[in-house]
């Protein structure tokens, strides 16, 4: 069986601190960048989780709508994982839309680490700060989903484990998420 990976762009939020849904930021450039990073970084399938704003997603991605997006990131992540359940992906590569400097090299590095790890779990780090992408092997998807609540993604799941491979990517990107709109 091939070791397929699927990317999930978490882009359903309203972006209240940013002033608009981040999926719309920079005229959609952040979204295009995230899809390209996942696809070129090794993901055979890419889903974009939408909610507060429904937009056309760039090829080769496919849209998934989280009807309960207002619940927070947990709803988006549940919708993204559910969209992968019937596919052949053995790893889910999770990324938020508001980390536009993360490129394919970061995704490929973290995915490679997850594929080589007994746990199948890896996450990018930038110096001492954890970040995206996060890669989770298929065997762990039910446990991940069971931990999801409110406006928190995989944080509880990851912090409860001692087998998450830390992959330093500070040489490739800042990994910074953008929460505040700098304005015109």
Overall average pLDDT: 95
Task: Provide the spatial order of strands within the biggest beta sheet.
Answer: 3-2-1-4-6-5-7
Count of helix runs: 5
Shape category: globular
Largest sheet: 7 strands, mixed
Radius of gyration over all CA atoms, rounded:
15 Å
- The residue ranges in which pLDDT falls below 50 over 5 or more consecutive positions are none
The amount of beta strand, in percent, is 15-25%
Residues in helix, %:
25-40%
Supply the helix-strand structural class: alpha/beta
- Strand elements, count: 7
Summarize the helices and strands and which ones pair or pack.
Elements: E1 5-10, H1 29-40, E2 45-50, E3 62-65, H2 73-84, E4 91-96, H3 104-116, E5 121-126, E6 129-137, H4 141-147, H5 155-159, E7 165-168
Helix pairs in contact: 1-3
What does this entry look like structurally?
The chain has 184 residues and is α/β, with parallel strands linked by helices. The protein is built from five helices and seven strands. The protein has helices at 29-40, 73-84, 104-116, 141-147, 155-159; strands at 5-10, 45-50, 62-65, 91-96, 121-126, 129-137, 165-168. A seven-stranded mixed β-sheet has the order 3-2-1-4-6-5-7, sandwiched between helices. β1 (5-10), α1 (29-40) and β2 form a beta-alpha-beta unit. α1 (29-40) packs across α3. The protein is globular, with a radius of gyration of 15 Å. It starts with a strand and ends in a 16-residue tail after the last strand. 46% of the residues are buried. The model has no long low-confidence stretch (mean pLDDT 95).
Task: Briefly summarize what is shown.
By secondary structure, the chain is of the alpha/beta class. The chain has helices at residues 29-40, 73-84, 104-116, 141-147, 155-159; strands spanning 5-10, 45-50, 62-65, 91-96, 121-126, 129-137, 165-168.
